[in-house]
Amino acid sequence: MITxxxxxxxxxxxxxxxxxxxxxxxxxxxxxxxxxxxxxxxxSSFLATLAxxxxxxxxxxxxxxxxxxxxxxxMTDAPKESILTIAETGVxxxxxxxxxxxxxxxxxxxxxxxxxxxxxxxxxxxxxVRIILNSVCLWMEKAGMFExxxxxxxxxxxxxxxxxxEK
Length: 167
What we know:
Elements: E1 4-9, H1 14-25, H2 31-35, H3 42-49, H4 56-62, H5 64-67, E2 71-76, H6 80-87, E3 92-98, E4 101-109, H7 110-120, H8 127-142, E5 152-156, E6 162-166
Antiparallel strand pairs: 1-2, 2-4, 3-4, 5-6
Helix pairs in contact: 3-4, 7-8
């Protein structure tokens, strides 16, 4: 059984962010959030504030430049081959192995993770790769980042993993 656990996530200092924007441009960065009744908390909210003049939810789905302003890291005991496959998408990896096993750290911007999820959650990838990325996706959804895959729907496979299909 492969274990995937969150390790790190970009954290926003809301007080400083709001104060600095008000001092420098005389605006609150949360105006778009307020207009769309979104909470001012978490990484998705921060990224949504960067979508000036756009619907924040649409921007999170369509604007990879915005997604580059936040990163998330995970640790896993997955096989090295699976880690190498995920690394090919742009997610950074650090792997340590010995006779007891393999430990890896996977870190990327949300744009990197979106690419990995969309590109590798498919029927031709290995079960292990799908398990890792399904775990990452489910964690991101719990953390409120479900909009990054909003242009895709999930399809569950017989092995209980899911793949992404364009809507």
